[in-house]
Amino acid sequence: MCRTNRKTLQGKSLQNRIEKIIQILDKNKAEGIEAFDLREKNYFVDYAIIASSLGLKHTTALLDHLKNDLKPAENFNNVDESGDWIVIDLGDILIHIMTPEYRVKYDMERFLSDLADGKEGDV
């Protein structure tokens, strides 16, 4: 009989979900895809994913691809669309899809990298 830690199973399942999201984004021409492991940090999700679109229409198209390829396995709790920046809340995963201009302007990588490295709040 094989005994497996439930947290390990959840982590593996979470990792599989992250990989699937990244594959969908990559297959549909998203650029600069990055995933941030925030499980041990003081943040409201376990993972955050950032990807750049090629423009406004592509941002919306990437959202459509994610919805089509992930449902019904994933529960889309909330989707906040502004055109230049879409945030998808899957509960334990937050996906940011941004136009390149918004990605540079808001620099989420720096915020999430600092958070993942335990530097939140450092000046």
**Overall spatial form:** globular
- Which strand order spans the largest sheet, edge to edge or round the barrel? 1-2-5-4-3
CATH topology name of the domain at 31-116, in short, is Beta Polymerase, domain 2
Topology order in helix (H) and strand (E) letters: HEEHEEEHH
Annotation field: number of helices: 4
- Total count of strands: 5
Strand content: 15-25%
Q: What is the end-to-end distance? A: 51 Å
pLDDT averaged over residues: 88
Q: Any idea what the CATH architecture of the domain at 31-116 is?
A: 2-Layer Sandwich
Helix content: 40-55%
Estimated radius of gyration: 15 Å
Largest sheet: 5 strands, mixed
Q: Structural class per helix/strand content?
A: alpha+beta
Instruction: Name the CATH class of the domain at 31-116.
Output: Alpha Beta
Uncertain regions: pLDDT < 50 for 5+ in a row?
1-9
The CATH superfamily of the domain at 31-116 is known as Beta Polymerase, domain 2
3D architecture notes:
The chain is built from four helices and five strands; from the N terminus they run αββαβββαα. With 123 residues, the chain is α+β, with helices and mostly antiparallel strands. It has a domain at 31-116: Beta Polymerase, domain 2, CATH 3.30.460.10. Strands 1-2-5-4-3 form a five-stranded mixed beta sheet, sandwiched between helices. A hairpin with a 3-residue loop joins strand 3 (78-81) and strand 4. The radius of gyration is 15 Å and the shape is globular. The N and C termini lie far apart (51 Å). Residues 1-9 have low confidence and may be disordered.
